[in-house]
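Quick check before the chapter quiz. The format below is the same one you will see on the exam, so make sure you can read both the input and the output lines.
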Amino acid sequence: MIFNSSGFLLFLPLTFLVYWVIGSRQRNLQNILILLASYVFYGWWDWRFLSLIGISTLADFFISLNLSTSDSARKRKGLLWLSLLLNLGLLGFFKYYNFFVDSLQAALIQLGMNLHPWTLEIILPVGISFYTFQTLSYTLDIYHKKIIPTKDLISFAAFVAFFPQLVAGPIERAKHLLPQFERERHFDLAEAIRGISMILYGFVKKVVIADRLAIYVDSVFGAVEAQNSLSLSIGLIFFSLQIYCDFSGYSLIARGVAKLFGFEIMINFNKPYLASSITQFWRRWHISLSTWFRDYVYIPLGGNRISLPRTYVNIFLVFLLSGLWHGANWTFVIWGALHGVYQLIYLSYAKLVASPRKESWARTIGNTLLVYTAVCLAWVFFRVDSLPDAMLYLQKLGEGTLPTNLMQLSAEKGPFNLFLSVVGIGILLASYLLPDQLKFRKPIQHVLFASISIIIIITLGINGEPTFIYFQF
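Here is the expected output.
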């Protein structure tokens, strides 16, 4: 089930009513209802993959209980490795098996060897990368004695499968979200209204902006050889805004839905395209993933407490893994590697020219544009299907060709869609300049909510039910 589907528009109010009417003031019953709703939400797509969530849930629950009671360092390490092998093994098989087999075959062909490996028709379970990292963080935190394991299996299962953020994050930590399942929750009208406003704003980002931009983006990336440099530039800018609105829109809807049920989940985006350094960009983009890699990969490898060359190697490795996490394709690996290179260049530059003085606004704007340009160029590898496609895109982008007339910018979809895309960018820029939540008088608030709801419903009718980009990860 996806947020922008007719099924969810029925599922959410029904779950909300049952949760607060039947489960009111009964924490255990509320958790059972959340767990059942989460399994319905996930099983709506393919019920068979509920078994994978069940395996991860039961394994990490009992492994963690044993971790907390064992005094043997050897046994504790063995239990940790069991959790890592089980979770990463499932993730690796379903997401990367064919990728590694195909890559091995291509390498052997280059060496003059012809191998016919056994590939499988594997369906990638939606959200497996997200809930796997969520359960792993729980086990790792218990191993390092940062948290105490819960003895409430229902609460833990609900934490793992919590439907607002199950399939595309944010990747929550047990120390933040799990205690919320273990305490009493009471309906708060003010929080519910805040949640509704987040949901509406998230839907605007997704269906009004991202899905309209997608029409132009798909036409450009689907016929690169027929495009001119200006069309490719606009297509790339539009994709950078599409993926931001698509993913941050999902995260905002997830936060809003969680609020309706009395939960607070983390902020996953903080205006990343206003970052004036690449390091700052990654503190603002997909925050739950970047902090996960920082805490569970970068710091355990030594962080910045080791020699400078090893620190740089660790940074580059983290971004390579981040790229691979996003998808089983060399394009994602190159995307991650590019960001790793960006980080190393920035850190080296910062060490040479570090200045205690506050930067001028002109320099800040210049740095922001430079970072945005670098991020956009990396997005080429993220969006295309193969490395040759990326090379073609960059080659034609650098040719400097212009359209013979402005109508060519429509890329087969007509100038009206281009106009809607520009309007969408205007809405996005306005949202950057205004705070996420504005407090209005109730009559104005009601009119605003009703107006936005009508716009969303109309746009949903035009768009259909396109999935969210990050569902494929």
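If your answer matched, good. Confidence is low (pLDDT under 50) at residues 436-441.
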